[in-house]
Amino acid sequence: MNRLFSWLSDRLKLPPILHHLLDEAIPGGASWIYIFGSVTLFLFLLQATTGTFLALYYAPTPDHAYESVKFIQEEVPFGGFVRGLHHWGASAMMAAIGLHMLQVFLYGAYKPPREPMWIVGVFLLILTLTFGFTGYLLPWDQKAYWATQVGINLVGSVPWIGGTLARILRGGAELGALTLSRFFAIHTLFLPWLIMFLIAGHLFILRRVGPAGPWDKARAKRISEPFYPKQVFMDAVAMGAVFLALVVLVNLFPAHLGDPADPTDTTFRPVPEWYYLFYYQLLKYSEGPWEPVVTFVLPVLFFAILFAIPFLGRKRERSPARRPIAIGAGALFLVFVFTLLGLAMKETAALKKTDPAVERGRAIYAKLACAGCHRIHGQGAQVGPDLSFVGDARDRDWLIAHFKDPQALVPGSIMPPTRLPEPELEDLTRYMLSLKKG
Amino acid sequence: MVNDKSSSSRRMGGNKKTAEVTRRGFFGKTIAAIMGLIGFGLGIPLFGYAVLPTLKKREEPWSEVGPLELIELNRPKELEVVRSSSSGWMKSNTVRSFWAYKKPDGEVVAFSPICTHLGCGYRWSDADQQFLCPCHNSVFDLEGKVLAGPAPRPLDTLPTKIEGDRLFILYQEFKAGLPKKEAI
Prior knowledge:
The structure holds two protein chains of two kinds.
Chain A: H1 2-12, H2 14-22, E1 25-27, H3 35-54, H4 65-74, H5 79-106, H6 115-137, H7 142-156, H8 162-170, H9 177-209, H10 217-222, E2 224-226, H11 227-252, H12 274-285, H13 290-312, H14 324-351, H15 356-367, H16 390-393, H17 396-404, H18 406-409, H19 422-434
Antiparallel strand pairs in A: 1-2
Helix pairs in contact in A: 3-5, 3-11, 4-5, 5-6, 5-11, 6-7, 6-9, 6-13, 7-8, 12-14, 15-19, 17-19
Chain B: H1 4-12, H2 19-55, E1 63-67, E2 77-87, E3 90-102, E4 108-111, E5 123-125, E6 130-133, E7 138-140, E8 146-148, E9 160-163, E10 166-169
Antiparallel strand pairs in B: 1-10, 2-3, 3-4, 5-6, 6-7, 7-8, 9-10
Protein name (chain B): Ubiquinol-cytochrome c reductase iron-sulfur subunit
Keywords (chain B): 2Fe-2S, Disulfide bond, Iron, Iron-sulfur, Membrane, Metal-binding, Transmembrane, Transmembrane helix
Cofactor (chain B): [2Fe-2S] cluster
C-alpha cells in the first residue's frame, strides 16, 4: 500500500495536492461543532450512491413503478436495505442541513466575506427540498400520489400564474404518467447535476475565504490547527455514527410501501414527510383570505429573508451575545416551527389510531382473496357487490350471519359460506364495518 | 499546537518518534478504520443488490398445452403453447409452437420447432412421412433422426408430462448448428 502510494506519488506529484487538501488551517482549532457540513456532504454522497443503485430496478411509469419498488423491497437481496437507506438518508440530510444552518447562523459565519457561501447554501437547501418533493412521488403508492396531489395544488393556488405552474409541474392537466416521468427525470438527472455544481461552488468559496472559526477573534488567532488529522478524525467519527444510526433505523423501521396509487380513493388522508409537517399544520389554520398568504406570501417571504440574512445587519460582530435581534428572531422562528411540528404530530398520532381488529380483518380479506369477486375503492373484481361503503348498509349481526350462511340471507347468492373461527369472523366483520363514507 | 508548515513536512519525510507522531498515527488509523467500515457496510450489500439477482437460475415452468386428444398416433401436429415468463416484476405470456405425436405405446414425443441446422422452422410432410426443412434441405424421420442435409444433430426433443388427460410441456430453446444439444 505504501509502495503503491509512493510510486503514484512520484509520478502524479501528490504531496502538494495533499498539502492543499489536508493542511488547511482551522482558526481556533478542530471542533465537534464543525461536523455538520461534512455530515451533510456524506449524506448527499450516500443518497447519490443508493439512488443510483435503486435506478437499476426502478421503472418510472404508472403501470410498473409500484411493482418495481415492491420488487426492490421484497425480492432483490438487500433491496429493503438500499431503499431504506435512501428513504432515511433523505430525512437525515434534512436534519443535518438544519443543524448546519443553525450552527452557521449562531456563529455569524454568514457575515462578510462569507455572504456568497450563505447564498449558495440557501440554493442548496431549495434543491434538497425539491429532491424531497420529487422523490416522494416515485414509489407511486397512495401516500406518494396524494401528497404530490396536495403539493401541486398548493403551487396551483399561487395568484395569477399558479394554474400554469401546476400544469408545468404535472406535465399536463392531470397527475399521471407524464408527472411521474417528469419527476423521475428531475429527481435523477436534472437535480443531481445542479446540486453537484452548487456543492462544488460552496466548497470552492469555503477554500477561498477559509473557515470562519470561533467568534472570539483573539481565540481564533491564538490557536490554529490543520484540517488533518483532528478535524478529519472528528468528521469521520460523525459520519460513522450517522451511518450506523441509519443502518439501525433501516432495520427497525423499514421504508414503508402502502397500497398502490388509486386516484378514485378519496378517503386517503395524505400526511407529508416530517420536514414539511410544520407547514402542513400552518395550512390547517389558514382559511379564506388567509390562504394565499400562507401558501404563497409566507414561503416567498421566508426564502427572501433567508437570502437577505447576510445583508440585514451592517455590523461584523459575530458573538451571539452581541447580536440580540438576530439570535432572538432565530429563536422565535425555531419556537414557531417546533410548536407547529408538535401540534401536527399530536394530531396525526390521534388520526392513526386504527383499530387493530380492523387491520387483522383486512389481512383476512386479502388472505381469502375476497377481491376475486368484490370491489373496494376500485380494487378487485365486480362479480359480487361493491363493498366500498358496506359499513353504511349493514350491521354487525347481519354481516356475521351472512358470512356463516350467505344463501339464508340473500337467496340465490353465489357467495360461499365463510368457514372461519369466531375471533377471525369478528375481525373480518370489524373491517367490513369500517368501510364507511366520511 | 502544530502549525501548518511543520505538520506537512513531518508527514512527507520526518520519522521523529514524538508524541505528535503517534497521535497522528492514531487519528489516521481511526479514520481509515471508520472509512473501511462504511465502505464494507455499504459495498457488500450494494454488490449483492446489483449482482445476486442476475445469477439466479431461471426456473422454466411447465406449460399446459391442453387435452391429450389433440395428439394423434404417429402423425406429428404443430401445437401452440402459452408460456409464462417473468423478468423482474414483469410477468408476460408468449406463444410458442412445437411438434408432437403419440407412439403406439402411448408415449408422447415432442420436438422443438427449430431446425438444428440454422434455426429455421421445418414442417411435417404427410406424403413423405418425413420432417422437411425447406431452407437447406435437411430431412428428419419420425424419430427425429437426420436422413439427409446439413443438420448436425437429430431434432431436439422437449420433456412432456401427462396429468389426468392434460398434456404439459417444458418449453426450451437450444443452440442451432452444434452436434450436441445445448440449451440456450
